[in-house]
């Protein structure tokens, strides 16, 4: 099985999905191995907590296994899976908001405080640095960035989904990339493409 950067080669996805539909657990594990990092990045970017994001990764793949029969061959598997992860993350945030009568701002502040206590300056983890930088983007910029880079949506699709103009989407995406470059360039020795 060919993998690049931890992700399953797109040409192999259809084969693996068909095997999963037939109950092949090894094919399922290959999909999990190939996509778990990408699902984690998306979940972490939305819920801003490592443990919660890890729980959502597990829940996303359980949902994938339950709903694999609804995946249609030829459909963009990555976008399909990222939509499952996004929906679960949003549901999680809604449950959190209803459980705690706190505002989302107070919840975000609490999570940011927890993250800063756990940071170990001696540890260099570029993936984690990128995750944290994405979570710190303003909400609209973060959402556009996630939809474009993790759900593989085009600007027009994002504009339609968010009910904003394509120009606004492009502007938000440009600003997000610029902020990420500014934040990450000194730490990673370069910028994002």
CATH-level-2 architecture of the largest domain: Orthogonal Bundle
- Which CATH first-tier class of the largest domain would you pick? Mainly Alpha
User: If you consult CATH, what is the topology of the largest domain?
Assistant: Rna Polymerase Sigma Factor, Chain: A
Q: What is the total tally of β strands? A: 2
Which quaternary structure do these chains form?
single chain
Calculate the mean pLDDT score and round it. 78
> What pattern of helices and strands is seen along the backbone?
EEHHHHHHHHH
Number of structural domains = 2
**Which regions are unreliable across 5 or more consecutive residues at pLDDT < 50?**
1-5, 101-107, 109-124, 189-193
The CATH superfamily of the largest domain bears the name: RNA polymerase sigma factor, region 2, helix turn helix motif
Please describe what this structure looks like.
It is globular, with a radius of gyration of 17 Å. Helices cover 74% and strands 2% of the residues. The chain has helices at 10-21, 25-47, 50-67, 77-99, 104-118, 126-135, 139-149, 155-162, 166-188, and strands spanning 3-4, 7-8. The two termini are 28 Å apart. Helix 1 (10-21) packs across helix 2 (25-47) and helix 2 (25-47) packs across helix 6 (126-135). With 193 residues, it is mainly alpha-helical. Strands 1-2 form a two-stranded antiparallel sheet. The protein folds into 2 domains: 1-102 and 109-118, RNA polymerase sigma factor, region 2, helix turn helix motif (Rna Polymerase Sigma Factor, Chain: A); 121-188, Winged helix-like DNA-binding domain superfamily/Winged helix DNA-binding domain (Arc Repressor Mutant, subunit A, Orthogonal Bundle), CATH 1.10.10.10. The protein contains 9 helices and 2 strands; from the N terminus they run E-E-H-H-H-H-H-H-H-H-H.
């Amino acid at each position: 099985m060919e993998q690049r950067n931890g992700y399953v080669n797109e040409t192999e996805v259809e084969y693996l999905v068909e095997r999963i539909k037939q109950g092949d657990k090894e094919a399922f594990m290959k999909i999990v191995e190939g996509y778990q990092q990408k699902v984690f990045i998306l979940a972490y970017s939305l819920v801003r907590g490592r443990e919660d994001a890890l729980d959502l990764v597990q829940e996303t793949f359980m949902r994938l296994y339950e709903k694999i029969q609804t995946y249609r061959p030829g459909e963009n598997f990555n976008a399909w899976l990222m939509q499952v992860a996004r929906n679960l993350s949003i549901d999680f945030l809604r449950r959190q908001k209803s459980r705690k009568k706190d505002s989302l701002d107070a919840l975000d502040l609490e999570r940011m405080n927890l993250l800063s206590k756990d940071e170990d300056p001696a540890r260099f983890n570029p993936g984690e640095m990128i995750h944290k930088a994405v979570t710190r983007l303003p909400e609209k910029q973060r959402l556009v960035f996630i939809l474009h880079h993790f759900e593989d949506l085009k600007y027009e699709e994002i504009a339609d989904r968010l009910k904003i103009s394509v120009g606004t989407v492009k502007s938000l995406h440009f600003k997000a990339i610029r902020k990420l470059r500014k934040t990450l360039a000194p730490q990673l020795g370069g910028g994002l493409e």
